[in-house]
Amino acid sequence: MVKKLMKSIREYRTPSIICPLLVVLEVALEVLIPFLMADLIDVGLENADLPYIYKMGFALIVAAMLSLLFGALAGKYAAIASAGFAKNLRGDMFHHIQDFSFANIDKFSTASLVTRLTTDVTNVQNAYQMIVRVLVRAPVMLVFALVMAMTVNFELSVIFLGAVPLLGIGLFLIIMKAHPYFEKVFREYDHLNGVVQENLRGVRVVKAYVREEQEDKKFFDISGRIYKLFCSAEKIVAFNGPLMQFSMYTCILLLSYFSAKLIVGGSMGTGELMTMIVYATQILMSLMMLSMVFVMVIISRASSERIVEVLEEKSTLHNPENPRFDIRDGAIDFENVSFIYSQEAESAALSGVNLHIASGETVGIIGGTGSAKSTLVQLIARLYDVTEGSIKVGGVDVREYDLETLRDNVAMVLQKNVLFSGSIKENMRWGNPDATDEEIMEACRLAQADSFIQTFPDGYDTHIEQGGTNVSGGQRQRLCIARALLKKPKILILDDSTSAVDTKTDALIRKAMREVIPGTTKLIIAQRISSIEEADHVIVMDNGRVNGWGTPAELLKTNDIYREVYESQMKGAEKHE
């Protein structure tokens, strides 16, 4: 785990090395100061030697100033190293997530990935900053101060040796007991982020159904569970303080008791006693710092495991060793295709699908909710891989193509139309980064989007809010279709992506596609018969299987599902008239 995380340090390795070196110099001078002070008192003041007092006083000032300088520089480099490490770690995770298949994302959930990219990385960043500075400072201070204490008075320094194992055992027990609670806490954070994300995304529905009270309860229930888990963990970690205080005051009491006897006996000076007390404080403070680091490590260990879990996750989709970069045409073949979303699934989403779609054809797809219409088309662009059988595009199995090449030639407008924050032009260039303004306007005209864009004060420079919340559902769908058309794909998939536009606009979009991109294979998933009545063929899906295949006229005669949908919609239209 540590080795995996350390790969993200990279260019911040130098600050990570400089910081501990500066800390060692800072501590060395800090430990030297009490030793110089003892000489100043026992030699300079006792003998009233003014030149010696000036000499030692100057040495103390220089040591204090240098220690302060080294400490400030160490803090600076620690901040650079930890912030840079967090930046790289977050970037590495995000870059790795971009290669995830839908199956990988489903495994973690969006909310969990957000938590790992934010809260977990922050925890690791804080721990790393303490490791490169405090975790170096504490043991170095402990060793240096112990050596100096032994130099001043070996017998008294033995007192400190008794505190170290006591604290070590205590801290180890605290870590072992608290860690499981922190693991549970971060899992609950995933749930909390999921609730917040869902609530904010569906805030209009929440308000429309007056569900604020229920959403509040859902949030506070999870928040309460996090509170209880944190309390349980902190109750254990809280033993750290009393343990430290007990060790510290016991050492100081024993030191004072034995030192008093030595001073009365004349075998120890006042300066030495003061130095021993300072060293005692430094030794015990270093142990206190170690305990703080251990607490942070307890928290960050759970976060580190969650981060490494993402970094080590292998995408379920891979490029072949020698991928193909040329796609002949938009012909699509399903050969005995079956698909299961996960091994735990009770039944297959698709079973025994066999289809041949010629290049340039327009194919409609209908079926009830849950009939696997979207699943069928998502396999074409390898958003998922088939479980059994094969899908061919241009006569070649999709698994033999370079993944980027395949997806560049298969444009999809999904059910959930997503626009990103930025101008309309910037959103359009997701389809083609090199598209000219004229090409963008032409694609928008084909998608019947140009008319409403021209009504905006800023036209194509109009800013789209995150998720496209400042445009209507129908406008959002037309912009997404225009973006897909800019790719000039060999295959265009419209997954119920004209459901929010009126029938006239729907007809105009289909007419434009027939006339302008006749060579592109078009798959149209629709709920309206009117959207697919001019298709070359129609696929009827039912419970993950192909229930019917043929022209609209053929299916009207031979397929019960198609005929039922047709008649229900046509009768509805007649009644409306």
UniProtKB/TrEMBL annotation:
<feature type="transmembrane region" description="Helical">
    <location>
        <begin position="246"/>
        <end position="264"/>
    </location>
</feature>
<protein>
    <submittedName>
        <fullName>ABC transporter ATP-binding protein/permease</fullName>
    </submittedName>
</protein>
<dbReference type="InterPro" id="IPR036640">
    <property type="entry name" value="ABC1_TM_sf"/>
</dbReference>
<keyword id="KW-0813">Transport</keyword>
<feature type="domain" description="ABC transmembrane type-1">
    <location>
        <begin position="17"/>
        <end position="297"/>
    </location>
</feature>
<dbReference type="GO" id="GO:0015421">
    <property type="term" value="F:ABC-type oligopeptide transporter activity"/>
</dbReference>
<feature type="domain" description="ABC transporter">
    <location>
        <begin position="332"/>
        <end position="568"/>
    </location>
</feature>
<dbReference type="Pfam" id="PF00005">
    <property type="entry name" value="ABC_tran"/>
</dbReference>
<feature type="transmembrane region" description="Helical">
    <location>
        <begin position="158"/>
        <end position="176"/>
    </location>
</feature>
<dbReference type="InterPro" id="IPR003593">
    <property type="entry name" value="AAA+_ATPase"/>
</dbReference>
<dbReference type="InterPro" id="IPR003439">
    <property type="entry name" value="ABC_transporter-like_ATP-bd"/>
</dbReference>
<dbReference type="InterPro" id="IPR039421">
    <property type="entry name" value="Type_1_exporter"/>
</dbReference>
<dbReference type="InterPro" id="IPR011527">
    <property type="entry name" value="ABC1_TM_dom"/>
</dbReference>
<keyword id="KW-1133">Transmembrane helix</keyword>
<feature type="transmembrane region" description="Helical">
    <location>
        <begin position="134"/>
        <end position="152"/>
    </location>
</feature>
<keyword id="KW-0067">ATP-binding</keyword>
<feature type="transmembrane region" description="Helical">
    <location>
        <begin position="12"/>
        <end position="37"/>
    </location>
</feature>
<keyword id="KW-1003">Cell membrane</keyword>
<keyword id="KW-0472">Membrane</keyword>
<keyword id="KW-0547">Nucleotide-binding</keyword>
<dbReference type="GO" id="GO:0005886">
    <property type="term" value="C:plasma membrane"/>
</dbReference>
<dbReference type="Pfam" id="PF00664">
    <property type="entry name" value="ABC_membrane"/>
</dbReference>
<dbReference type="InterPro" id="IPR017871">
    <property type="entry name" value="ABC_transporter-like_CS"/>
</dbReference>
<dbReference type="GO" id="GO:0005524">
    <property type="term" value="F:ATP binding"/>
</dbReference>
<keyword id="KW-0812">Transmembrane</keyword>
<dbReference type="GO" id="GO:0016887">
    <property type="term" value="F:ATP hydrolysis activity"/>
</dbReference>
<dbReference type="InterPro" id="IPR027417">
    <property type="entry name" value="P-loop_NTPase"/>
</dbReference>
<feature type="transmembrane region" description="Helical">
    <location>
        <begin position="57"/>
        <end position="80"/>
    </location>
</feature>
<feature type="transmembrane region" description="Helical">
    <location>
        <begin position="276"/>
        <end position="299"/>
    </location>
</feature>
